[in-house]
Q: What sequence folds into this?
């Protein structure tokens, strides 16, 4: 089991090809209404789109085992599970001997002597379905405090959205299969994915997340800073290799006179710009929190790759077959939102206690 949070605590369990994956979320107040339809809508956003996603499909039906009665939280741990119904471990057997480059296969086989690779096991993106369920409950919790979270696809491969996007743009991205902010970008990003797939290859990209309604001062300092907590949770998403806030690494090219976000007064203290992504010293500064997560290309590709044969201890070649996403970025959008909601629910609760 894997745990996130201290006040609102999420525990993740299961494996890609086990009977069930599931989770527990504690800290949700008694009698809070839980909208199951909203959970299912958000789960639908994680499902693959034909052509640009894996052929593996799952109904993702959530079974609540405890902590929920009559559509309301009981105040106890909410325990739920999702049955894995579409599994085929046979094509993964070869990876126990010839690990996939770019995947967790090799370090996992070294670290865990009894490890057997079946669909990626605990390292699989399949487990993110459980994160979306918990994240949806957390989203409903923070929405009662006026906090809203929305993400979109900032880039896929060489196709990058160069425009400054609003929260409404991020919400509108849900109308497009790639989760791009516009129909034109959706078309270009779709082509980028299909081109990679046609060449038995994969492609990565960047998800941007925008959070509004955060109270000034929310967060902490040093190791309790809000951006550190967000980054820690987002980095846990399989395939995430980078997180930045505001202008991020672009700030290194600026001078202070360019990077600073000047204040002004208009029925309260506000900012002229948001280069810092709404976080200063680990705390919210009143601007929307904006961060981006970079996702690597899917390591399971049809192109022949160099690897090693762990039985013969010699160089080998690997050509992967099976059902894999040529790009996981569109499906990662709702997962990024979900972990952000979980961290914010935990942070809000911690400050209210």
A:
């Amino acid at each position: 089991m894997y745990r996130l949070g201290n006040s609102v605590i999420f525990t993740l369990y299961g494996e890609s090809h086990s009977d069930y994956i599931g989770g527990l979320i504690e800290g949700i107040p008694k009698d809070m209404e839980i909208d199951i339809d909203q959970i299912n809508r958000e789960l639908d956003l994680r499902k693959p789109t034909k052509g640009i996603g894996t052929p593996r499909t799952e109904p993702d039906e959530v079974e609540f085992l405890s902590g929920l009665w009559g559509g309301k939280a009981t105040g106890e741990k909410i325990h739920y599970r999702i049955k894995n119904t579409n599994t085929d471990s046979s094509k993964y057997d070869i990876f126990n001997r010839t690990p996939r480059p770019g995947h967790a296969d090799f370090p996992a086989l070294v670290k865990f002597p009894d490890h057997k690779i079946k669909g990626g096991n605990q390292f699989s993106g399949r487990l993110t379905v459980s994160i979306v369920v918990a994240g949806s409950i957390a989203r409903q919790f923070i929405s009662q405090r006026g906090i809203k979270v929305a993400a979109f696809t900032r880039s896929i491969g060489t196709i990058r959205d160069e425009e400054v996007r609003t929260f409404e743009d991020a919400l509108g991205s849900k109308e497009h299969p790639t989760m791009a902010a516009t129909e034109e970008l959706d078309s270009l990003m779709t082509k980028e994915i299909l081109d990679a797939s046609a060449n038995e290859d994969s492609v990565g990209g960047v998800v941007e997340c925008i959070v509004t309604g955060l109270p000034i001062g929310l967060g902490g300092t040093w190791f309790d800073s809000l951006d550190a907590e967000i980054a820690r949770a987002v980095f846990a998403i399989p395939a995430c290799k980078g997180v930045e806030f505001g202008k991020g690494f672009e700030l290194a090219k600026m001078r202070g006179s360019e990077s600073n976000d000047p204040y002004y007064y208009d029925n309260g203290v506000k900012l002229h710009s948001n280069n810092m992504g709404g976080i200063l010293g680990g705390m919210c500064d009143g601007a929307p929190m904006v961060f981006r997560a970079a996702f690597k290309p899917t390591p399971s590709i049809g192109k022949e790759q160099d690897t090693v044969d762990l039985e013969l201890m010699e160089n080998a070649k690997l050509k992967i077959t099976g059902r894999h996403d040529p790009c996981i970025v569109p499906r990662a959008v709702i997962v990024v939102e979900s972990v952000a909601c979980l961290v914010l629910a935990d942070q809000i609760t911690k400050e209210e206690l």
Observations:
- Residues 30 and 328 are 36 Å apart (CA to CA).
- Residues 329-352 form the longest helix (24 residues).
- The chain is about 25% helix and 25% strand.
- The mean pLDDT is 94.
